[in-house]
Design goal:
The structure holds 2 protein chains of 2 kinds.
Chain A lengths: L1 E4 L4 E3 L8 E4 L2 E4 L3 E4 L4 E4 L11 E9 L3 E5 L5 E5 L12 E9 L4 E10 L3 E4 L5 H5 L4 H10 L2 E4 L4 E5 L3 H13 L6 H12 L1
Parallel strand pairs in A: 9-11
Antiparallel strand pairs in A: 1-5, 2-4, 3-4, 5-6, 7-8, 7-10, 8-9, 10-11, 12-14, 13-14
Chain B lengths: L9 E2 L2 E2 L11 E5 L7 E7 L2 E12 L12 E8 L15 H15 L10 E11 L4 H16 L8 E8 L2 E4 L3 H6 L2 E8 L4 E5 L2 E2 L3 H36 L21
Parallel strand pairs in B: 6-7
Antiparallel strand pairs in B: 1-2, 3-4, 4-5, 5-7, 8-9, 8-10, 10-11, 10-12
The chains are: A alpha+beta, B alpha+beta.
Chain lengths: 199, 264
């Protein structure tokens, strides 16, 4: 059975190592608003921030174009960096890109690799904690969305989603719906229903 | 005002608004009221109306304010020019607003896990739309809800309430008149999980015994405030869960857009 927990709420009477939780005086407490499964001992964030990990796919906007480095806005406390030697594309300030986290600096700088320019389209800002649900199990949800609406979708783990072409409004509506109802069950069926009716 | 003009604050053991010494004013908390903010809350505490918003973590600017080891917290408490009958908030921050911003900031420095975001800043804004005494306590309570709703990791949700002394009586949650004419007014902020005091500002005189009695009264009322805070945070999620409780798709059955009929 899942329950909603708030920061500082006790999860377990024993010390357990759980993501987004902390241990104090031999007990485990949550640090963010989340759903906690008492049986599986899993904390699913309802509200949360993005912590970069090596290999994460991100979407960002080129903020500054310096001589041999590009500074990328990732809509987070972390700043993205792309070295000019890592890209053949002609990127200028304002371009939307998709890239992969290559390396993490000790400070709050994220070194990105394999950048790809995303021309046109639009960016949707979603909560980073809901990205998992938008992607679905084995990316099933996003594949379904993309196929049904004929929209090209790129999801960044940092909470930026890039959309282009097809029934873009329907796709946006579906993503917003997934974001709002991520903590409920039977969501996949409701999304299917929405896409069916929008066709 | 001369002592002789001091109004009678306690009549037959009851306060001017009919409350008993240990009673809170009616409190209503709403979370997620501002779309652009990372987290926000609106609190109605008696006649106080307070809006709190949280932005960040984001790059700390100007750069020299940043800390390479942990996030810095910036807080702005401000009273709207129309918030009270007095001269509050006429132009920008005054001495009082700067002080309250500082103590609010220090409350949250103790509960936010700042080490997760080195070099960044978390901004807390507390706007008092209407004031009736105890706005700093209500502001901290509102800001705590806004922070929890923003997804910033915290070890606890603090609450604040004022305690005071009217003649012989120890009271909690003083309103404007009581605040002005009472013998003591002590706003306190408490972290309920750890039972730690995060703020205590004494205005007036109270004995050690009186303070400890008032503290236990405040902690008792704190249970009510904490319940209201957590309920406010959970409400938007429970509302959606409730909608789909039976598992039945509740989407409209007819197509949303009726295509206009093409003339034959």
């Amino acid at each position: 059975m899942q329950r909603i927990v708030v920061p500082g709420e006790k999860l377990e009477d024993k010390p357990l190592r759980i993501d987004e939780a902390f241990i104090d005086d031999g007990k485990t407490y949550s640090t963010i608003m989340s759903m906690y499964d008492d049986e599986k001992k899993v904390l699913t964030p309802l509200e949360g921030l993005w912590y970069p990990r090596s290999g994460d796919s991100v979407v960002g906007v080129v903020q500054e174009d310096k001589f041999n480095v590009l500074i990328i806005d990732l809509d987070s406390p972390y700043r993205g960096l792309i070295f000019a030697k890592d890209t053949n594309e002609d990127l200028v300030s304002g371009d939307i890109i998709e890239a992969t986290v290559k390396e993490l600096d000790k400070t709050k700088t994220v070194i990105l690799g394999r950048p790809r320019k995303l021309a046109g389209g639009k960016i949707l800002y979603v909560k980073p904690s809901k990205i998992g649900r938008i992607l679905g199990k084995g990316n099933s949800m996003i594949k379904q969305l993309s196929a049904d609406t004929q929209t090209y979708v790129v999801v960044g783990m940092n909470g930026l989603v890039w959309l282009k072409g097809g029934k873009i409004d329907l796709c946006t509506e579906a993503i917003v719906m997934i974001q709002q109802e991520a903590h409920t069950s039977g969501l996949t069926d409701r999304v299917k229903n929405l896409l069916e009716m929008g066709k | 005002m001369a002592k002789s003009e001091k109004p009678e604050l306690m009549v037959n053991g009851k306060r001017l608004d009919g409350r008993m010494p240990g009673d809170l004013r009616p409190v209503r908390i709403e979370s997620g009221v501002l779309k652009n903010a990372a987290g926000s809350a609106y609190v109605e505490w008696g006649s106080n109306k307070i809006l709190a918003a949280v932005y960040g973590p984001r790059e700390a600017l100007p750069k020299h304010t940043s800390d390479p080891e942990k996030a810095v917290i910036k807080c702005r408490y401000q009273m709207a020019p129309f918030s009270s009958l007095e001269e509050h908030g006429r132009t920008g921050p005054n001495r009082r607003a700067i002080e309250i911003s500082k103590v609010t900031k220090e409350v949250f420095e103790n509960v936010i896990i700042r080490e997760n975001f080195p070099g960044s800043e978390i901004s807390i804004f507390v706007e008092v739309l209407q004031s009736d005494g105890g706005t700093r306590a209500a502001g901290i309570t509102a800001a705590a809800v806004a922070l929890a709703g923003s997804g910033i990791p915290m070890t606890d949700i603090p609450y604040a309430v004022s305690i005071g002394k009217i003649g012989e009586h120890i009271v909690i949650d003083l309103n404007k008149i009581e605040d002005n004419y009472s013998d003591a007014d002590v706003p306190i902020a408490i972290s309920p999980r750890q039972d730690k005091i995060l703020l205590l500002q004494m205005d007036g005189n109270m004995t050690r015994e009186e303070v400890s009695k008032a503290l236990s009264m405040a902690k008792e009322s704190g249970k009510i405030i904490t319940k209201l805070q957590t309920d406010a945070l959970k409400a938007p999620y429970l509302k959606i869960s409730e909608k789909y409780k039976n598992g039945a798709p509740s989407l409209p059955q007819q197509p949303r857009e009726q295509q206009p009929q093409q003339p034959k």
